[in-house]
Amino acid sequence: MSRPESLADAFVTIMGRVREIDADVQSDDSTRHDYWRLRQLAEACIADGFRRAADVADVALGMRLRAKQQSSECTEPRKP
C-alpha cells in the first residue's frame, strides 16, 4: 500500500499545475488574458486557503492559551 501524499507534495504538484496554466501562451495569443485570469484565480484560491488555515491555527492557539491560563489559575493558591 502506498503512502498518502503529504500536504507539501500536494502543494508542489498543484503549484506546478497552476504554473502550466499559461506556460505556453504567447503574448500575441488572443486568449492570453483568459489564461492569465485563470492563473490569477488559481493563485488567489491558494492564497485564500493559506489565510483560512492560518485563521484556524490562530483559533487553536488561542484555545490552548486560554486552557493553559485556566489550569494555572486553578492550581495557584488563592490570596486572601
Notes on the structure:
The chain has 80 residues and is mainly α. The chain has one domain (7-75). 72% of the residues lie in helices and 0% in strands. The chain has helices at residues 7-20, 32-75. The protein is elongated.
Topology:
Blueprint: H1 7-20, H2 32-75
Provide a short characterization of the protein structure.
The chain is mainly α and 80 residues long. It has helices at residues 7-20, 32-75.
List keywords for this structure.
single chain, 80 residues, mainly alpha, 0% strand, elongated
The rough form would be described as: elongated
Distance between the termini: 63 Å
* Beta-strand proportion: under 5%
Q: What is the helical fraction, as a range of percent?
A: over 70%
Q: Give the total of domains.
A: 1
